[in-house]
From TrEMBL:
Name of the protein described by the UniProt record: Amidohydrolase-related domain-containing protein
Pfam families, per the entry: Amidohydro_2
Domain Amidohydrolase-related residues, every copy: 13-290
Molecular function in Gene Ontology: hydrolase activity
SUPFAM superfamilies, per the entry: Metallo-dependent hydrolases
Domain of life from the UniProt record: Bacteria
Length: 290
């Protein structure tokens, strides 16, 4: 494993990880698009010990649908240094949301791109509906959507009652640079102060050996508003072997990713220690309530 170029600041946070398994205890949703193997708290702790990360955000992964039990179990095991982002349905009872809040959930994720949804109006129905459900709790709405959807919805996203978090840079094609169609909407969201952008899944988006492709995007976002950025590893890197004819019910491998290399990419892109401290410590603390 590559090590970060320099020690991370105390209180650094990995804002995007998932936990899985065992399947016998935490069954997957029937309508899932993939089936991952096991990835547990001990493996996550070991990774973060090597990287120098002391805080973490567990994001409910799509194979579990709205059954948040595995993510909540992780919050219980990891304690006060962990926060959660749940997946809920429209019409989730208030007392259930209150229960999630008491277990340190601080946001909801709307998985638009995961299921191939490309209709901005259908995406807006889900985003707006969930924002209305969770605004009273002070939660944010995290969206996994492609640039074309974000571009259409950017103005409306800035008018929501809740803060918005954009997953994985907005899923751009890193080979095309930040001038590509739609990425200006992500920059506007960052500059508005209404949205946070996750610098996450760098290796998945860039491709192995091509992490430098992410640097212009990080530069552009930081120039727009360094207070709008957080970093996430996307561990344990689902999607290994996707697209090779594997059925959704077949266990697919995780991709072999070097999370220290992704951190080094952030360090290379952001030379100012104060900005790196904001991205790794201050911004996550404010967003997730550490």
């Amino acid at each position: 494993m590559t090590m970060p170029l320099e020690p991370l600041p105390q209180g650094s946070c990995d804002c995007h990880v998932h936990l899985f398994g065992p399947a016998g205890r935490y069954p997957f949703a029937p309508a899932r698009v993939y089936s991952p193997g096991d990835a547990d708290e001990s493996e996550l702790r070991a990774l973060h010990a090597r990287l120098g990360i002391s805080r973490v955000v567990l994001v409910q992964p799509s194979p579990y649908g709205t059954d948040n039990r595995r993510m909540l179990a992780g919050l219980g095991h990891l304690g006060s240094a962990a926060r959660g982002v749940a997946v809920i349905g429209l019409g989730t009872p208030r007392d259930e949301l209150d229960r999630l809040h008491a277990q340190r959930v601080r946001g909801v994720r709307v998985n638009i791109a995961t299921h191939g949804m490309d209709d901005p109006e259908e995406a807006w129905r889900l985003i707006h509906g969930q924002a209305q459900q969770v605004a009273r709790l002070g939660w944010h709405v995290q969206i996994l959507a492609r640039l074309n959807v974000i571009d259409v919805l950017a103005v409306r996203l800035m008018q929501l009652e809740t803060r918005v978090v954009v997953d994985h840079f907005g899923l751009p094609d890193l080979a095309l640079g930040p001038e590509q169609s739609g990425f200006a909407a992500v920059l506007r969201l960052a500059g508005s102060g209404k949205a946070m952008i996750k610098i996450s899944a760098i290796q998945r988006l860039a491709g192995r050996g091509r992490l430098a492709r992410a640097i212009p995007f990080i530069w552009a976002l930081s120039a727009e508003n360094p207070g709008a950025l957080v970093w996430g590893s996307d561990w344990p890197h689902t999607g290994g072997g996707r697209g090779v004819g594997r059925a959704a019910t077949d266990i697919e491998p995780f991709e072999a990713m070097d999370d220290a290399e992704a951190l080094s990419c952030l360090t290379e892109a952001i030379s100012d220690p104060a900005r790196r401290h904001a991205i790794l410590v201050d911004n996550p603390a404010a967003l997730y309530g550490f």
